[in-house]
């Protein structure tokens, strides 16, 4: 008779990297739940236009009579407003799906750009050392010395509103975290024998950097990427809530919350509260998964 | 010691100059300075006069020197919206923000220190786990969302506290402050709580970690072996030693409180600099934006400098490392 616990608990091989990653993602029940939530939310974001009960930005589909309906109410033509509707009669459930799409999109894009820039600078700093290293690390220290929100505020005050500008501001805020992490790893890797072999073979700097050094510095980068994307989503929501982030034509979760805030005082709590809860679940579960990955892939803890 | 301070001072001035170059390039060089600095309904003669008085016909480095020169004289242009000089406009609103930040910091210490102490002393207990889980929540709740919840619970649902404004500030020791009147205190509580929740979690975690580190040390064991009362061991011997890192971190975090006050002030319509800068950005009131950025960065740099100097006084090892 097999113990039911061993049937349900998944135990992939603990020796391969993919085994370690899978174990850290699904091994413990709370983390497994967070992983599933993340995957589900990404799926919803990708499929939003096809699975949403309404296109919230097609003005023809909206009915002003259905404005500010409480959760679970039915509209005049029988449409079920699962999570209520906003002042324009927009189905909040559908608006949140579209908002999730934009929030995740902006977070992912800025995360990936920040990762590319930070990783490159960190690698270059560790590889060349000397003055280049000092210059890059001084810039990193300077960036990390100021609070995220202040730097983003500064950038947006100078650049103005827009999706591209928000992404640029988030990249400027976040590249330093990647650069610091990569430099620390690369400084160790650079002294290893395979790098010496690369020098002896006379590889060009570019090949030595990107085909030899980079692959060996990637695991920690990928780990902090998840946490940084969560931070980017949270920062974008904050900036959009303040009214200086995304324009109204790109209603992310932060903008939905901001729009609902004016109605909140009057008692229409659902317009603001549900998008907020979704944002919270998204950021929280990404952080849990990221932390679990970090612990699993931390080289100090592996041996 | 003096060499260390001088070196840090030079670094700080470097940071300030760098910021001023960035702000200058951003606002004056990339965009069209005339469109930015002259009201939209200006006549061609006014524009020509502005070009000359701003020195836009001169090379960029000369323009920058001119800009810095005016900034050092406290002249960063007039606000379009308020039609008054931008620097006094900001200084006028600064006390409200500083008051909010100070109260938030005190709140964080009053709540965070005891919670961290209890959690550290009773590590592994249910109480400890509750406090630690709570602090994780305090970390991951986005600041603005947490503020909205405070408004929803305490203003909308329960109706206990007002959700917006500063109330009627009174005068205490010659300063206008919300702390002097009951109405002011009622208005202050929610924004201060909103701003301090994150720092509360931080202080709690720092204190707990400090207690866990200090308890097994020899001098604590010795104090106990001497037969000192437990209360004296904890409040004098343990607490005194863990306070050093906490005070330092708290000092550094004060700057970020002022930055995060933008969010809190927007939610609670608090009439401070944070709300002013958000309004100015949405209304494209550039002179105010420039003045805010320079003043806040200067304050921030000064604060970092002070913290570094205090820290090097408390812990001489830092001076040798920071070369």
Describe this entry's structure for a reader.
The complex is a heterodimer of chains A (303) and B (323). Chain A has 303 residues and is mainly α. Chain A has twelve helices and two strands; from the N terminus they run H-H-H-E-E-H-H-H-H-H-H-H-H-H. In chain A, strand 1 and strand 2 form a beta hairpin. In chain A, helix 5 (130-145) crosses helix 7 (163-189), helix 9 (205-242) packs parallel to helix 10 and helix 10 runs antiparallel to helix 11 (270-297). Mean pLDDT of chain A is 81; it is low at 1-9. Chain B has a two-stranded antiparallel sheet with strand order 1-2. In chain B, a hairpin with a 2-residue loop joins strand 1 and strand 2. The N and C termini of chain B lie close together (12 Å). Chain A binds chain B through residues 142, 145-147, 149-150, 153-154, 156-159, 234, 237-238, 241-244, 254, 257, 261, 264-265, 267, 269, 272-273, 276, 279-280, 283-284, 287, and chain B through 15, 18, 22-23, 26-27, 30, 140-145, 148-149, 151-152, 155-156, 163, 255-256, 259-260, 262-263, 266-267, 277-278, 280-282, 289, 293, 296-297, 300, 304.
